[in-house]
Amino acid sequence: SAHFLWAKRIATATTTIRFHSKSGVLTAVRRDGWIVLDFPATPPERCDPPPYLLDAFKAQGAPAFRTAFDYMVVIEHPAELRTLKPDSRLLNAIETRGIIVTSPSDEPGVDFMSRFFAPTIGVDEDPVTGSAHCALAPYWAARLGKMLMVGKQLSARGGIVRVEYAGDRVLLGGKAVTVVKGTLEA
Questions:
Q1: Is residue 175 predicted with pLDDT exceeding 90?
Q2: pLDDT confidence bin for 12, thresholds 50/70/90
Q3: Residue 182: which pLDDT band, with cuts at 50, 70 and 90?
Q4: Does residue 38 have a pLDDT over 90?
Q5: Judging by beta carbons within 10 Å of its beta carbon (0-12, 13-18, 19+), is residue 137 exposed, middle or buried?
Q6: pTM for this one?
Q7: pLDDT of res. 155
Q8: What are phi and psi of 112, to 5 degrees?
Q9: Residue 121 pLDDT exceeds 80
Q10: Cα–Cα distances in angstroms (integers) from residue 148 to residues 103, 136, 161, 173, in the given order
Q11: What percent of the chain has pLDDT over 90?
């Protein structure tokens, strides 16, 4: 939405755009060619995995976490994350909005990697998930001892997200392009 407002010159390039949402006021600014969004942090807390969670990913013994919205599973090998083929039947049995699976990165310039699955709300795998990074930022900040990081979501489309963990807030930086133009008729 911010990209559209700037591209159509509805807002000037230096304007901070404010969106009123269920999470409160969310802001968007342009910084060095990136759109930076300011969201509430949703730090994950270690939990006992619910039934089927680890089985769905063949990740027995992996640590499980709970965020405000999702479950999170941490695996240690990026190659496993890349080739992960979750059992959708088992995923559908887990009562949650979605499931984040994350690992450290093996790519230069990238601190951590992730994937996001939400079949119970009709999203087999989300391409790039801002809300997941609101949980990933505090987790990886604590683990890596860094507040500024780069995350890579490994969906088929994939994407890079710059993250800055700022206490109770997470600043997410991404890029946007216009892919479709059209006219809606009433």
A1: no
A2: confident
A3: confident
A4: yes
A5: buried
A6: 0.91
A7: 92
A8: -150, 165
A9: yes
A10: 17, 12, 11, 11
A11: 74
pLDDT digits (tens, 9 = 90+) for 61-110: 999 999 999 999 999 999 999 999 999 899 999 999 999 999 999 999 99
Query: How many CB atoms within 10 Å of residue 30?
Result: 18
The three-state DSSP-derived secondary structure of the chain is CHHHHHHCCCCCCCCCEEEEECCEEEEEEEECCEEEEEEECCCCEEECCCCCHHHHCCCCCCCEEECCCEEEEECCCHHHHHHCCCCHHHHCCCCCCEEEEEEECCCCCCCEEEEEEEHHHCECCCCCCHHHHHHHHHHHHHHHCCCEEEEEECCCCCEEEEEEEECCEEEEEECCCCCCCCCCCC
Structure tokens at 79: 């190659």
The CB-based long-range contact list for 115-118 (8 Å cut-off, 24+ gap) reads: 115/81, 115/84, 115/153, 115/154, 115/155, 116/70, 116/153, 116/155, 117/86, 117/91, 118/70
Within 8 A by CB and 6+ apart from 41, the residues are 134, 135, 137, 138, 165, 166, 167, 168, 169, 170
CA–CA dist 66, 169 (Å, integer):
18
Sort residue 9 into left (φ over 0), alpha (ψ -120 to 50) or beta: left
Q: Are 171 and 103 in contact (CB under 8 A)?
A: no
